[in-house]
Amino acid sequence: MPAIPAAAVRGRRAVFIGALLAAGVALGVLADRTFGTKAPAEPPTYRRLTFDRGSLGHARFAPDGNTIVYDAAWRGEPSEVFTARIDSRESRSLGLRSAVVHAVSSTSEVAVGLAPGLFATLGRVPLAGGAPREVLENVGWADWSPDGASLAVVHLVDGINRLEFPIGKVLYESKGQITHARVSPRGDRVAFIDHPDPVLSFSGGSVVAVDPKGAAKTLSTGWADLYGLAWRPDGREVWFTAARRDEFKALRAVTLGGEERLVARVMGQLDLEDVSRSGRVLVGHANFRVDMVGRSPGESKERELTWLGLSQVADLSRDGSRVLFTELPEGAGEGGSTYLRPTDGSPAVRLGDGLAQASLRTASGPCRSSRHRPD
To answer: What is the pLDDT of residue 171?
Structure first.
């Protein structure tokens, strides 16, 4: 029987943004509770700041604590730098296209990456706008000192990630990935995330702090998903968003002595972006799914076939009546699960743990053998 084209069932990724910056800012009630005042603990309040569709890179508070600077790629357009205010629903472009926000200084200067991607030329530009001034090539992350006079950078040199503070003074090196470098409020330490696996660079890792002499201390480790980091305003804790396996990331805190606590948890993926001097918390809240859409043999109308919300197509049966796919965490458990579902919309059947493996057919021959194959 002739092969059914792979296009008959296709993966479609829909990012519902609201995502990332969209979850917004946790206001003063959260600060009262987490900074140890005696005010009654109440649930934190969140205010949504972005309403467009696309993807968001990084976001930071400006010195006034009410202005947000962020980069985003909306509606398929290239990444661009925007500003927004907490009391408004509108964003304004700074005129920096294909740029990435690293940090905003106490003197209202923005450190930016001048090209998309992990490592690019570092530039600095006034928050009021203007042409950026180039500083250093091959920079992945950057943050200002408290006085705005110098920068801490993650600098790629000969394939090695180097944490430098100030620029040129190496405090830490890694053959993996160093991310989210943040200078403490007193300027006496730099906290960062150390991802030891150079391939799975933004997955698991450890929260580390290093002093000006290069003495590094691991504060928290063993996380399966670790992304987002900032200092508490008084410098007593490092806040970060992380998860163990098969769970959503939550906002957590760790002291310099290694004492950990949970700060806040919400449904969906949470990414910490910044903490203001007054204790407002800027987070990204990602709600996304991978949809699977198919057309049964003899039918002209497509049908929604998504099962648990993160359905990744592996193969079709020869007659096009069944689709083999993987459901990814969080709904499918650690490592994912393999399913088989009729393309007529009937319920899926779980075949086992792990990822579905099958070769796509071509018009000239059948698929090769695989661990899970719809015959």
So the answer is: 98
- Listed as ranges, residues in the chain with pLDDT below 70 are 1-45, 199-202, 246, 268, 286-289, 329-335, 358-375
Please classify residue 81 by burial: count the beta carbons closer than 10 Å to its beta carbon, then call 0-12 exposed, 13-18 middle and 19+ buried: buried
Q: What is the pLDDT of residue 104?
A: 97
Its sign, for the CA torsion 69, 205, 155, 170, is positive
Q: Verify that 245 and 135 share a domain, yes or no.
A: yes
CA distance 177 to 197: 7
Burial class (CB in 10 A: 0-12, 13-18, 19+), 246: middle
Measured CA distances, 185 to 128, 191, 234, 235 (Å): 24, 11, 7, 6
Choose one of 270, 287, 304: the last residue of a domain: 287
Q: What is the pLDDT of residue 31?
A: 40
Q: Answer whether residue 185 is part of any domain.
A: yes
Say what the pLDDT of residue 141 is: 97
Q: What angle do CA 260, 106, 87 make, to 5 degrees?
A: 80
- Cβ pair 284, 253 in contact under 8 A: no
Residue 249 is predicted with a pLDDT of: 86
How far apart CA 127 and CA 115 sit, in angstroms, is 18
Residue 326 lies in a domain: yes
3-state secondary structure 296-338: CCCCCCCEECCCCCEEEEEEECCCCCEEEEEECCCCCCCCCEE
Distance CA 171, CA 153 (A): 10
Please indicate, yes or no, whether the overall pTM of this predicted structure exceeds 0.85: no
Measured distance between the N- and C-terminal CA atoms of the chain, rounded to whole angstroms: 12
Which domain range does residue 248 map to?
Answer: 17-287
Residue with tokens 């003899």: 298
Residue 2 lies in a domain: no
Based on the fold, state whether residues 178 and 222 are members of the same structural domain.
yes
Q: What single-letter DSSP state applies at residue 43?
A: P
Residue 282: which H helix or E strand, with range? strand 281-294
| Residues paired with 111 in a beta bridge | 103, 124
Specify the pLDDT at position 16: 23
Looking at residue 10, what is its pLDDT?
30
Nearest to 266 by CA among 247, 253, 279, 280: 247
